[in-house]
Amino acid sequence: MNILITGGAGFLGSQLAARLLKRGEFAGQPISQLMLADIATPQGPLLADARVRSQVGDLAASLPALMTQPWHMVFHLASAVSAECERDFGLGLHANLDATRALLEGLRAQAERGGPVARLFFSSSVAVFGGDAVLPLPEVVRDGTPPLPQSSYGTHKAMCELLVADYTRKGFIDGRSARLMTVSVRPGRPNGAASGFLSGMLREPLAGQVSNCPVPLNTRVALASPDSTLRGILAVAEASAAQLGSRAAINLPALSTTAGEMLEALAQVAGSEARGLVSQTPDAGITAIVGGWPARFDHARASALGLAPDPDFATILRQYIDAHPDAVQLPSARQRLGWT
Amino acid sequence: MNILITGGAGFLGSQLAARLLKRGEFAGQPISQLMLADIATPQGPLLADARVRSQVGDLAASLPALMTQPWHMVFHLASAVSAECERDFGLGLHANLDATRALLEGLRAQAERGGPVARLFFSSSVAVFGGDAVLPLPEVVRDGTPPLPQSSYGTHKAMCELLVADYTRKGFIDGRSARLMTVSVRPGRPNGAASGFLSGMLREPLAGQVSNCPVPLNTRVALASPDSTLRGILAVAEASAAQLGSRAAINLPALSTTAGEMLEALAQVAGSEARGLVSQTPDAGITAIVGGWPARFDHARASALGLAPDPDFATILRQYIDAHPDAVQLPSARQRLGWT
Description:
Two copies of one chain form a homodimer. The first copy, chain A, is of the alpha/beta class.
């Protein structure tokens, strides 16, 4: 089967690609081609695999070239992120809404000319949720909680969920959407996102650098590890339409934890020197933004697919350390891990 | 102020125009121009009013011409209806999603070049609601019930609600969306819509013609009269953003009644001969479609704006008769009304 991953050079896209290549099959079918479509060129060893192709460029503009061959499975992960959409309203609509619509139209044309009815996984986000004075965010967010986006990014995700469901209802694709949770611990460099500290305040101390926790320690957040997120994507993508039972988007599982518990896990796993590298200088702006995010989820539909949240933050932290041993540079942390 | 009504030649659009012209003002400002944009030419006496202009053609294609002047208030009622969207998927997306987006972009450009930030009323629909095995439609639909459209028309309406809210959040427009209920009694000729009998089984007997009730008499439906619908549109359009309190769409009030109660009202108002002209030949298809529609609403937000449902169906029927006396042709009905 031919698989297309949009956003295939990104953090989750490239890890998803590596996982699919290692398995060699998807939904019981051998993978003959894996196309990574992205505005960036894929990095690392992926391109060395004979099954892998790459299409670099704007997704909407790339679609005529991409659709010259049939696709059986599409993981649609490409997206302009929240801050980009707030900075450039038109760019956000183009990258998120227009590109998704062009992709769906390409797959509809594929089916209508007698090609395969592609299965499509759409990567939605918890950013579809929000609350206001009239319709406050409930304490626990469920699969049936009404989306009330408070950002353009969340607006686009909610709109595309609806579009994917309607193309599916019409039989043009076999689509399904899942709302991804905030992913922690992300590797790499600090970024300007409001959620950046949820990875940075762990990653930086492990690398021997100072970091800051900008929110009160009792601030509650909902997180998922990269591994848990990838397992969620694959489970939803491989489930049959009957198993899903609804065209509505599924909330992936999230661990509900607090900033304080995350830092306790850092001390427990990497030692008190690592913990000591994290200052606690409050940032009212970040505290307000993060405080508006859902922090507890009931993920009944994901549970029915066999998915569960990460058990605790120490487990998430150990996953990061195992996956990125070179990123642990603090001598006392390496010693505590038994690496010296 | 300059007011634009899209769908201004339609049933609700032309009645809204007549009401605005009679008032002469909107939100305290005198109406200097009222533009009726529609694919059809406005009928009746509207065009004789010196304040009225007309733009006939596809809305998306008309927008460059329309946007050469500033708009202070837009009633966006134009829409491809449910059956059209199911028949021609691309046409539905063009007429509902693309045209709405083009209108919103036109208003954003108006604001960004220093023109007025237009107020916009978006006419959404109860068709955004639906249920399935996993997320069943609740017995009572509330303002916060999650949309789960079961048609392309409902999908487009839900998507445009989200878009209107995001343009509003960004300050490009002052937008608000209200979900209109099934309107009864509609004047005119029978149409092929599944909801057609909800007007036809009253209108046809009054005209002295036979009609049919295709659903069991205990089938429950939610209805609003044209007058109640127009009052709802104007109240939501004139409310301040603070009064609305949320950018989420408002459900307009609906009378919850049954097919049997509607026919009892017909007998009560127009006599037993009129009632006798309505056969009861079941149609399984229509029964299934209408049975999937929400039939009871909690309209807390509309109530807070002073809106209430029609009190009973006999009142709705009398409203139709008063507005369209020439449509009552059955002699026994005219006699009962004291018109002979």
